[in-house]
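<purpose> Linking amino acid order to shape
<body> The protein record starts here
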Amino acid sequence: MSAVRSTLFMIYAIVWSVFSAPLVVIAGPLLGGIWAYRFGRVWRLGTQWGVENLLGIRPRIIGRENMPAEPCVIMSKHQSAWETMTLQDCVPAGAYCVFVLKKELLKLPFVGWGLAAMKMISIDRGAGKNALDQVVTQGRERLKQGFYVIIFPEGTRVPPGEKRRYKPGGAYLATHVGCQVVPVAHDAGELWPRQAFLKRSGTATISIGPAFDASGMSDAEVNQRVEDWIEAEMRRLSPHRYPDAGKAD
């Protein structure tokens, strides 16, 4: 059944993107920048319809009350493509999100072109310190414009039960801009594995942690606070992935 569901979804997603993504690409230049985001939302919601009704993956969001009413930096676990869509449902109604992503993604047909039209925060990951400055320059502007900024501090999709080094980009942005930070954990990788064609139906949980003000904190302090909360919450969401979770240190 998973194979049938996954195949149907892949066909649907391709067809939907071919017809809807071009609207995102042309909307900005012709109608104004905000229209790229409006059509982008239509594109996303159409794809999510396929996720819920063809794949059978439905979201459960807890801690929604922790999301600030004003734009902030959201630092989230990254396990699949699922959260790139569903995290955008965690911000207040009517608000828009931008992601911090590697600039190579903007070259992908349809999806990448749409991301470029929506002016995501794209960086050259090989630029070292300059990459962090790119995040701050673009991120400050997006926050002023009213966008929530989403970043995956581990920098790549990580299988359930595993962890990568938390990189400083999100913390660097938050401390230099002086805004609130929200840590987010989820278990989407249990249903939508990294780089896997087959997906399983079920409920994926997003847990939104308490927001905190990064003003006056160091990058390291912000990163550590985010990592501590996310990794502890992951052990609660997916205890079977952490056999030592109940043991004392």
Observations:
- The chain has a mean pLDDT of 90.
- The two ends are 42 Å apart (CA to CA).
